[in-house]
Structure formats: structure tokens, C-alpha cells
Amino acid sequence: MNGGNKLLKIAGTGPEENSIKNEIKKLGLESKVVLLGWMEPEALIDIYKAAFAFILVSKYEPWGVSVSEAIASNLPLILSNNIGALEEIAFSNDNAIVISDVEGQITDAMSLITNDEKAHSRMRDASIRLSSKVDLNISTQEFKKAVEELSRY
What's the rounded Cα separation, in Å, for the pair 150 and 142? Predict the structure, then answer.
């Protein structure tokens, strides 16, 4: 397995989009990094299907629904420790590499998943096992309860 032929696709938008575009251009990575922008949920299905891994390194992500979608797509995960419900959906060194804000951790995690076939397979298999245990109806009910509880404040 070699990371040399991988393409980093970034879905979504945000306040840092222009600075990311500029950095990609500055580093000459236009052929290696593609900004997809905002996508309809239906279009994301094909992105998940074609993906090798899923990365979400938000500074703050209260729910992390996209992580559940990635697990359902049987993907290894690289996640920041700032994602809500992390303890329920990501198990460090099992289906996910959980990182803090330490510089270089994202690169190290990407290198591991890309260059270590055993690690990639182990993490993918763990996501498969986890996704088979997830009951979407229970998750939806729990989310609804949380929203109802928060609306009381």
C-alpha cells in the first residue's frame, strides 16, 4: 500500500476555506488536494463509498453525524478529540486514531493508515463490527431526547 497515489478530498465549507485554498496553491498541491465544497447528502454517499479513510479534525463538533456515516461506510477514522459523542463512536486504536491539537499528529495518522495495510484493515474491520451493532432507531431516539432536554433551558 502506498500513499503516493492518494487524493485528499475535503467536503464542506467554512470560514477557513479561502486560506486552505491559498495554502494548497502555495504548496503546489492542486493535484493532490481537492476542495469539494458543500455537497448534497445524497452526493456524499458516493464520496464515502470511494474513500480510503475518513478525517474529521474539527476544533469543535458537537455531534459528529458525519462520523456515524463514515462508520456505516466501514471507514477507518482519524478524529480530533473535540468531537461530541466520541466515546460512543470512536475507539482509539480500534476503528479510529484520536488526536489532540498537537501539530504533526494528523500527518502521522494519515501516514499510518495509508502505509500500514494491517492497521488500515484492522480499523476498517472494527468500523464494520461497530456499524453492525448500531441501531439507527435507538440513535435517533437518543438524539431526540438530547434535543428535547436542551430545549428546556
Answer: 12
Q: Among 22, 52, 46, which Cα is nearest to 35's?
A: 22
The CA distance from 21 to 104, in Å, is 20
pTM beyond cutoff 0.70: yes
Q: Per-residue confidence at 141, pLDDT binned at 50, 70, 90?
A: low
Residue 55 and residue 114: Cα distance in Å, rounded?
A: 12
- For the stretch 96-112, pLDDT in tens is 999 987 778 999 999 99
72: cell is: 456505516
Contact 72, 134 (CB under 8 A): yes
Q: Using only the alpha carbons of the chain, give its radius of gyration.
A: 16
Distances (CA, A) of 65 to 1, 56, 85, 104: 29, 11, 9, 25
In this prediction, residue 114 has a pLDDT band, given cuts at 50, 70 and 90, of: very high
Counting other chains too, the contacts that 136-143 makes at CB distance below 8 Å and 24 or more residues apart are 139/68, 143/63
> Long-range contacts of range 136-139, CB-CB < 8 Å, 24 or more positions apart?
139/68
